[in-house]
Amino acid sequence: MTTYAVEVPEDSEVFGQTTSAFARFGHAPAVRSHGHLFIAGQIGRRPDGTAGETAEEQTEIALRRIEEILRLENLDLSALVDVTSYHVDIQEHMPGFLKAKQRVIHAPYPAWSIIGVSGLASPELLVEIRATATYPDGASSR
User: Fold this and answer.
1) Which of 65, 70, 72, 108 qualifies as a cystine partner to 42, CB 3.0-4.6 A?
2) Which of 15-24, 48-57, 61-70, 84-93 has the lowest mean pLDDT?
3) What's the per-residue H, E or C state across the chain?
């Protein structure tokens, strides 16, 4: 089975002008391989490139970006099987993160690891979320 890099269209309403970051940092938004979709860490940048003001807003934006990548592959959030989130000032921002997560993520829940970090790619970023999803049987080949 071959791998396939998912591309987010430049005119994406969810990603907006932030699509250029994939080329700038030299990575794909997601890669499909062996029945899984590996989604690169998504951050809380609005389509205009500005960061959300709170951890809650950044979490919701990051999750909506993951949801959009899944949509591009004809999947939805229920396809998630493994998620890792990285948090600056984890104790301070956990309540906002959980509020956004509970609004967006519903059962069946994926496995989820929550990790505190000293910083992310830009100082205004508070949350980054990476994920792995699975395709329904037989749906992962092109």
Assistant:
1) 65
2) 15-24
3) CCCEEECCCCCCCCCHHHHHHHHHHCCCCEEEECCEEEEEEEECECCCCCECCCHHHHHHHHHHHHHHHHHHCCCCHHHEEEEEEEEECHHHHHHHHHHHHHHHCCCCCCEEEEEEECCCCCCCCCEEEEEEEECCCCCCCC
pLDDT of residue 141: 47
Strand partners, 6: 30
Where do the domains of the chain lie?
A: 12-106
Residue type for position 91? Q
CA distances from 106 to 79, 87, 139 (A): 11, 21, 23
In tens, the pLDDT along 72-123 reads 999 999 999 999 999 999 999 999 999 999 999 999 999 999 999 999 999 9
